[in-house]
Design goal:
The protein is mainly alpha-helical and about 130 residues long. It has five helices and two strands, in the order H-H-H-E-E-H-H. Strands 1-2 form a two-stranded antiparallel sheet. A hairpin with a 3-residue loop joins strand 1 and strand 2. Helix 1 packs across helix 3 and helix 2 packs across helix 3.
């Protein structure tokens, strides 16, 4: 069983429940979570992040509404379907290339915001 650990950025301006939704979707896209995997319980997420349990439940309801997970009473919340594509897996050659690029960007003195701006502009250019 794979486990996802949520990282909450209270300064991001993104609602906490949406951060959880986004992180689950990212894990699904990267193949870090697969159908049948169990998400952490609300109690486990609260213990790790110090957020309100209702926030976790709201995120899980949103993921359920989107058909990505399903709640099984008394058992937990389980991944229903994947978003992974072969080229986007955590171990794909494209990820390795991107990691190398990020290392070069950091060595060139760029910070996280500089890199985010570059990536956003390239994404806009190529994906609209």
């Amino acid at each position: 069983m794979r486990v996802v650990e949520f990282r909450i950025d209270r300064r991001s301006g993104v609602a906490t429940y949406l951060q959880i939704v986004q992180q689950v979707k990212q894990a699904l896209r990267l193949g870090l979570l697969a159908p049948g995997d169990k998400l952490p319980t609300a109690k486990e997420v609260v213990a790790a992040t110090a957020i309100n349990p209702n926030t976790v439940l709201k995120a899980y309801r949103e993921l359920d509404r989107e058909g990505l997970v399903e709640a099984r009473p008394g058992l937990g919340t389980f991944v229903r379907r994947s978003l992974a594509r072969p080229g986007a897996a955590a171990d794909s050659p494209l990820r390795a290339e991107l990691a190398g690029w990020a290392e070069r960007a950091r060595a060139a003195g760029l910070d996280r915001e500089d890199v985010a701006a570059l990536v956003a502009s390239v994404l806009e250019e190529h994906f609209g």
